[in-house]
Amino acid sequence: MSTTNRFTAKFNLSARDWGALFLLWLTGASLRITMLAVPPVLPLIRQDLQLTERGVGALSGLPVVVLAFGALFGSILLSRMGAHRALVIGLLITAIAGALRGLGTDTATLFFMTFAMGLGIAIMQPVLPTLVGRWFLRRAGMATAVYVNGLLIGEILSASLTIPYVLPLVGGSWEWSFVIWSVPVLLNAALFVAATWKRGGADASTMNAAIEAAGWWPDWRDGRIWRIGLILGCASTIYFTTNAFVPDYLESQGHEDWIGVALTTLNTAQIPASLTIFAYSNKLVGRPGPFVAAGIIAVIATAGLVLAANPLWISIWAGVLGFVASSVLILTLSLPPICTSPDDVHRFSAGILLIGYFVSFLTPIISGVVWDITQLPATAFAIVGCAGVLLIGLAKSVGPSAGAQKLSSD
After folding, report:
1. CA–CA separation, 286 vs 404, rounded Å?
2. Which CATH architecture has domain 218-410?
3. Cα maximum dimension of the chain
């Protein structure tokens, strides 16, 4: 047996399954590749458009707000048009709006197209768990790990390749750099249509009627939406707050030369987390134990980060927090397909995404206020430790659940 066949046999996946995983991975990359093309060219944008620091903050924070509330729009679109069409529309909006952000080179156009791009990304978010539930219900954790891995790679590619390769290619134009990073998203849409045309037709004739009957508005009376949404918020809080304040914290400790190392460690540590869950999804998904462990590790890592005097250890603890945040993110996004009915996954996903992103929008602001009030840099990470404690408390809401029992029986 060849190496490829042994690898395929180990995961018990057909060639069609691997093709579907590849599509999920590409779509995961499309969730972030245009968004993370902004930070490398922010100095150029600020110079050309005369943006204030407040404007820079608004440009960076706008997509997060749209991701929170736009998930509901994605749920509406999915309930009306079906998962496949909704995903293609989301990809097209993301690609076109992402490319047009530099059109006219004025602030209004930049912000409007950034809003539209965020809406396109938001549309795709409740669609992906729906497709995971249809294509890989018994391997939801594995499939979710694949598209989150794509998301992480998309972040890394656009953030790391823009300055050394893309900008020289387009003569230093930040406007055309946005076009370059939108092309893969457009190709993703074309490939998805070509690869799922027949499957999309079957989808429209069977599942869509049930989804339309279910509606789009999340059932806010379902306590699981609130609890799992808060778990997602904890994961985002750990990541976004650490990402936001590690640079200033290192500078306050006189270790500004380590900022790049710490941020690289924080972000790259997410990739082995996705690979670990891909390999061991049947042992991890739908069970409270991993969330308890993640909460404990988050508390220890937070304490280690603020107590460490050596910048190397600060960077290591930041990497641990990145691993924890990514693990919890994947395990949480794996839950909708296994703890609710197939025709309700989009509503459930939209609900937890709205809560999770809204929490992640608020918590870095709270951390900044705490730092300003106390004038103690370490207090900015207090909310990260609190997120770890909350994770431990919320873990029981994950299982034992119908989803976990379903996985156990497979």
Report:
1. 5
2. Up-down Bundle (1.20)
3. 64
